[in-house]
Amino acid sequence: MKRMxxxxxxLGRLPLAPGTWGSLPPAIIFAVMCHFGPPxxxxxxxxxxxxxxxxxxxxxxAPAAIAATGKADPREVVADELAGQAVxxxxxxxxxTAEITTRQILIITVLGFLLFxxxxxxxxxxxxxxxxxxxxxxxxxxDLLAAVYAAIxxxxxxxxxxxxxxx
Length: 167
Prior knowledge:
This protein is mainly α and 167 residues long. It is 72% helix and 0% strand. The chain has helices at 2-6, 18-36, 40-69, 79-89, 102-122, 127-130, 135-165. Helix 2 (18-36) packs antiparallel against helix 5 (102-122), helix 3 packs antiparallel against helix 7 (135-165) and helix 5 (102-122) runs antiparallel to helix 7 (135-165). The radius of gyration is 16 Å and the shape is globular. The N and C termini lie far apart (43 Å).
């Protein structure tokens, strides 16, 4: 059960790019919620809950996957990507207005998804250093900081490009 949770019910066991698959659920939930237009707070709360759930699962249960695979950061563990991707979308709803188009929602979602994956894979300073934390903490912490970087870039893009141009 522990490995099922850390793999986000098997997403982490898909053969190609498991981290990318693990990042999809928060992005889809974000896009759907924005499309139906609830106020910013519920969207951010759902993203926060996904972050908390992914973080707790990663820290608590990733050691079982580490022990089973013998790897410090097993590919199948994608609860960290779930948590990180959700962090990427936390602040964005507070910048969205009622006039946002479906196209803008899709652009924000895809851009946030791609930015998180880029920062998570490239691991600019000091993200890579966080991987040295023990067990589930090392697996999780780098993704959370990558998400903060992605969120900053996403908010700047939204504020100065997407919201201004309508595209």
